[in-house]
Amino acid sequence: MVDSKTQFESLRKWVVEHKLRTVGSLWLSGIMGSIAYNWSRPNMKTSVKIIHARLHAQALTLAALAGAAVVEYYDHKTGSKTTNSDH
């Protein structure tokens, strides 16, 4: 139990320090996964496949931004804001 809390805490700190990288990675993986899924459906036109992939990635990006906002709110409320000495 303690080990999983430590892993969660280190993941949370990494997300707080690299918000844009996290959202960008989720967007890229979302669009790649959606394109892969849509390409397995042969009865759709290519333009529709690309539009669906973009919409899926856009929804995933909004979810990632909402998650980053929740993490930021949690850090602000608990006062455990990490300091980044590189910036």
Automatic annotation (TrEMBL):
Main subcellular location of this protein, as a coarse class: mitochondrion
Record Pfam families: HIG_1_N
Subcellular location per the Swiss-Prot or TrEMBL entry: Mitochondrion
Keywords: Membrane, Transmembrane, Transmembrane helix
CC terms in the record's Gene Ontology section: mitochondrion
GO biological process terms held by the UniProt record: mitochondrial respiratory chain complex IV assembly
Segment forming the signal sequence: none
Origin: domain of life: Eukaryota
InterPro entries named among the record's database cross-references: Hypoxia_induced_domain, Rcf2
PANTHER family linked: F18C1.18 PROTEIN-RELATED (PTHR28018:SF2), RESPIRATORY SUPERCOMPLEX FACTOR 2, MITOCHONDRIAL (PTHR28018)
Protein name: Putative hypoxia induced protein
Species in which this protein is naturally found: Lupinus albus
